[in-house]
Amino acid sequence: MLGGLAFGSEIKRFARNRMTRIAVVVLMLMPLTYGALYLWAYWDPFGHVNKLPVALVNSDRGTEVSGQHLNVGAEIADGLTSDKSLDWHLVDDAEARDGVAHGKYYFMLELPADFSAAIASPTTGNPRKAQLIAEYNDANNYISSSIGRTAVEQVLNAVSTRISGQAVNQVLSVITTSGSGIKQAADGANRLADGAAQLDSGANQLVTGLDTARSGSAELAAGSRKLSDGIDTATDPLLKITDLVARVGTQSDQVNGQVQDSSTALTDASDELGTIVGAQDTAAQSLTSVIDSLSANQDAVSVIATQKLRDTRDQLLAHQRTADIQAKLAKARATAAEGGPVGSALSDISASSKELSSKLTQLREGAQQVAAGNAQLSAGITKLDDGARQLSAGTAQVSSGSRELATKLTEGAQRVPDWTPQQKDAIAATVGGPVQLTSSHENSAPNFGTGMAPFFLTLALFFGAMLLWMAFRPLQNRAIAAEINPIRVTLASYLPAVLIGIPQAIILYSVVRFALHVHAEHPVAMLGFMILASCAFIAVAQAISALLGPVLGKVLLMMLLMVQLVSAGGLYPVETTTTPFQALHKLDPMTYGVNGLRQLILGGIDGRLWQALIFLVALWLGSILVTSLAARRNQLWNLTRLVPVVKM
Predict the structure, then answer these.
(1) Burial of 442 from C-beta contacts in 10 A (0-12 / 13-18 / 19+)
(2) What distances in angstroms separate CA 476 from CA 5, 136, 495, 627, 628, one per listed residue?
(3) What are the φ and ψ backbone dihedral angles of 493, each rounded to 5 degrees?
(4) Are 133 and 10 within one domain?
(5) Does the pTM exceed 0.70?
(6) In whole angstroms, what is the distance from residue 119 CA to residue 73 CA?
(7) C-alpha 223 chain-centroid distance
(8) Is 426 among the domain residues?
(9) 3-state secondary structure of 97
(10) Around Cβ 205, how many Cβ atoms within 10 Å?
(11) I need a labelling partner for 571 at 20 to 30 A (CA). Which of 233, 247, 396, 503 fits?
(12) Which positions fall inside the ABC-2 type transporter transmembrane domain (predicted)?
């Protein structure tokens, strides 16, 4: 009965008047200041960055590219101001810097004067990178500077992708244009290879013909030298006879006195002349055989040599001992034998002999000239043949090289792409921005508020639990004085607080779910988990207050609240905090409240939810046990309890 009266008396204490009843309502609504109010204030801050005033300065003067004016800065400025990703204000440099310095603008972005020139620099042979100049002022707002750096990086990536696409487009234009030139070069190289093959074939034929001419000219030179030697040998006796006959003619005045001697001389001359005629016939036959050999070769040199030899042979045959000369010699011998006058006959023979001697001399000289010319001809043909062989080797290399050139150019022309303008633009866009991010979010939060809801809800529940024990007594003195069971004493104080703590969780849940429209994957489980967390946090706050007393308990709860704010991992990943807070992370009650609500609100339930449930239940029961031990301890009075050191 005492236990029930204790429980009822604690509730009745807050129902005495209107102000205490209002206090109970305020206690129920206090978690909203940390939960719903904070979530509402920071529901989607990144979704409203387009309201941030930012200065944009376009100092770009532009440049000339292929006779056309290019001003990339103006294009980028128009693009930024039109997409309204931020509240861009296009101003001059002085106004922008003054605005950033005095908080009118959160930061500024400048496109320098040589921006277009730097972008077009790859086409000038002196490439350099274009610069974007950003200036921040963290004294305005540090978070805005962080947002600005992220925004500028996105602008830089977009501009780089666009510029890269334009540069690659120009390169592709050069490639496709040069491709037609390579194809024309390949066609020309193929024709060159065909001509080189014909040249090589003609050179080979020339070598073959010159080989034949070289052999024939060598034979002709040897034959003409042999012929000249044969003519010299054959005409030596003739020249002697003609000289002798000439002397006979000059001594015709003495002939009549020496008829007998003349008759004898004529007989000797006639015999010698017969010998000469035989040698002359032999020489003519030799010439005929050489002429027949040369007639088989139809080249120009052989034709000329054949004609010369025919003339020489005809001259030999033309000065043979004819029947007329034979008759004259017979008449002269008869006249000499008869002792008649023979002077006139001898004069005729002398004149004929002189003429024959002159012809023989010409024959000998002509044969020598023919032999010398044929020797020079043979030497020239030999040099020509050697040169033709070198030419043939060179033409073979030319033919092989030109064919290889034609083959490689043809292969290169086949590899040069033949893109349409649409394909070229698409390829330029792909190469200019080769990497495209495709991201996916498992259990994604639609906005900042939803993502931060687990932290703010857990914080609100712990804050509400802490406030309850500023109004309620952690242990009822009447129950302790009556020496009631410590567990009953603990519950007598705990249950009234829970009767307010549960409505705290329900009200907070309702406002967040239906007023702020926080979507939850598991709404019923979310409400149940919030009630469990509230009960556990109320038990923890009661245990601390009961164990240390109202004053020190409140101080420790405030300290615990501050520690949990940074060690729970609700705002930033715990790995980004310092080492002590990382160590406290696993012991922080709010850690498990945040983890559990994250999985119930965003989805993706795994072992962390069950770990959170087990930890909160264990924390709840352990806190009840600690409070019971404190209640049992308080049933024994001492001087310290009667006169506490610290009062509140």
Answers:
(1) exposed
(2) 11, 58, 12, 12, 12
(3) -85, -30
(4) no
(5) no
(6) 10
(7) 74
(8) no
(9) helix
(10) 12
(11) 503
(12) 26-165, 378-630
pLDDT digit string, tens, across residues 349-386: 666 666 667 766 777 777 677 667 767 767 777 777 67
Q: What is the pLDDT of residues 15-29, one digit of tens each?
A: 566 655 665 666 666
- Residue of 492, 491, 493, 501 whose CA lies nearest to 468: 501
In the block, which residue shows the tokens 């204490």? 13
Whether 601 is in a domain gets the answer yes
Q: Number of structural domains, the chain?
A: 3
pLDDT confidence tier of residue 399, bands split at 50, 70 and 90: low
What is the tens place of the pLDDT at every residue in 250-286? 555 554 555 556 566 667 666 666 676 676 677 677 7
- 302 contact partners, CB below 8 Å, separation of at least 6: 216, 220, 294, 295
The domain in which residue 393 lies consists of 187-415
| 633, two tokens | 């301890």
Helix, strand or coil, per DSSP, at residue 64:
strand
The 3-state DSSP class for residue 71 equals: coil
pLDDT in tens, 512-557: 899 888 889 999 999 999 999 999 999 999 999 998 887 888 888 8
125 and 202 belong to one structural domain:
no
Rounded-to-integer distance, Cα 195 and Cα 201, Å: 10
User: In the numeric block, which tokens belong to residue 36?
Assistant: 């719903």
Q: Do 404 and 478 sit in the same domain of this protein?
A: no
Tokens of 119: 């972008």
Nearest alpha-carbon partner for 337 in 262, 268, 273: 262
Strand 87-90 to 53-58 pairing = parallel
Question: Tokens for 572?
Answer: 């930033």
